[in-house]
Amino acid sequence: MFRYSISFIFLLVYSLGYAQEEAMEVPAIEKDTLVYKTAYGLRLGADISKPILAAFNGNYTGFELVADYRIGKKIYLATEIGFVEKTSIEDYSNSTSKGNYIRVGFNYNAYDNWLDMNNEVFTGVRYGLGLFDQTLNSYTPNVNSLYFPSESIDVSLTEKDLTAHWTEFIVGIKVETLRNLFVSTSISYKIVLAVEDPVNFKTLFAPGFSRIFESGTGFGFNYTIAYLIPFTKK
Amino acid sequence: MILCTAIFSGCEKDDFCTKDPVTPKLVLRFYDANDRDQLKSTERLSIWAAGKDTIQTYKSVALDSVAIPLNTTTSETIYHLKINDFDGSIASNQIATLTIQYTPEEEFVSRSCGFRVIFNDVGFSTDTSWIQDFTPALLTTIDNQSTAHVQIFH
């Protein structure tokens, strides 16, 4: 009786060993020849943060259209055009900037997608050009004296056709939420190349650039929804 | 996005006006009429502009230098300078009148400081009271107050 059971155990051990051997057998790796193609085309959209901001801020009106065109696996030609009217209220002045702008440049997608997904973590560079009017609505001379206090003076002095040139560095993400529909958010750091100031005043805000800090730099924020019109798949 | 909006609107106030003063005041220095290189403090000096109260910081003080504001909305400021180097009674007050005529000009400084006012083609005149002499009678411009504008001899 024991003899059988012992040989049965041996049999089990052997079969276990055999099974293990079988499992360890390395299957030949087949070269994956399947290439996931992604769409190339023109992506058109609008910045939805600006109308929202305008709804909450009575001193701001803005609208921006965005477009990009894929020219390489990771490279996109990108542009934004827009309109902004913004009143800057400072301690001693109240001025309005109003005008149009265009930014052109490239985006580089640094993200490796899975399969045929189309998401992006991108960096970009832009050249920006703004054409605007600047109106000094009112100002209060800073006389730092209560003995002869100064009062706010309404002037409504407008200087037309001012220009601003700048460069931008952008980082952002794009996510394909629905097929060909992209939601994107990005922030940008801007550096003034040249900006025209009104006579005896300063351009405190330039459309497309936003607030110009003392150092000639600025920040931007975009939240866009864009639709891809695919031309081809590569 | 709301967070970003909050951040960006939060750092709206990036600079403060650190320039002080922005609009220059008129600086007067008092010298001894007999020894014109020697500073001479005034006794019980009070200063007020025509039709206004005495300037708080210049109420019966002994000083050899004062900085007084000019009216930026007009082209003339008339100051009354009272001294009393006798006994402090009203009867022994000596009041001089200093008239300053100028052309104010507004000049943009910066976002935080706004516009300041500088004074061009400044002319001074006094009546003949305790102020025996002063110099200069004319100044091209007052655009800072780092040095005295008028030397007054008494």
Structure commentary:
- The complex is a heterodimer of chains A (234) and B (154).
- Chain A is 13% helix and 57% strand.
- By secondary structure, chain A is mainly beta.
- Chain A has a domain at 38-89 and 100-130 and 164-233: Beta Barrel (Porin), CATH 2.40.160.
- In chain A, the strands form two sheets. Chain A has an eight-stranded antiparallel β-barrel.
- Chain A is elongated.
- Chain A starts with a helix and ends with a strand.
- Chain B has a five-stranded antiparallel sheet, with no helix packed on it.
- In chain B, a hairpin with a 3-residue loop joins β5 (94-110) and β6.
- Chain B has 154 residues and is mainly beta.
- Chain B is globular, with a radius of gyration of 20 Å.
- Chain B has one domain (15-153).
- Chain B has one helix and nine strands.
Pair of chains with the largest interface and how many residues each contributes = A-B, 29 and 34 residues
Helix content of chain B: under 10%
User: Biggest sheet of chain A, strands in spatial order?
Assistant: 1-2-3-4-5-6-7-10
**Helix-strand sequence of chain A:** HEHEEEEEEEEE
CATH architecture verdict of the domain at 38-89 and 100-130 and 164-233 in chain A: Beta Barrel
What is the element string of chain B, with H for helices and E for strands?
A: HEEEEEEEEE
Return the domain count of chain B.
1
Q: Which oligomerization state do the chains in this entry correspond to?
A: heterodimer
The chain-level mean pLDDT of chain A equals 88
C-alpha Rg of chain A (nearest Å): 31 Å
Main sheet makeup of chain A: 8 strands, antiparallel, barrel
The low-confidence parts of chain A are: none
Strand order of the largest sheet of chain B: 2-4-5-6-8
Name of the level-1 CATH class of the domain at 38-89 and 100-130 and 164-233 in chain A? Mainly Beta
Please report the total strand number of chain B as a whole number.
9
Number of strands of chain A: 10
Number of helices of chain B: 1
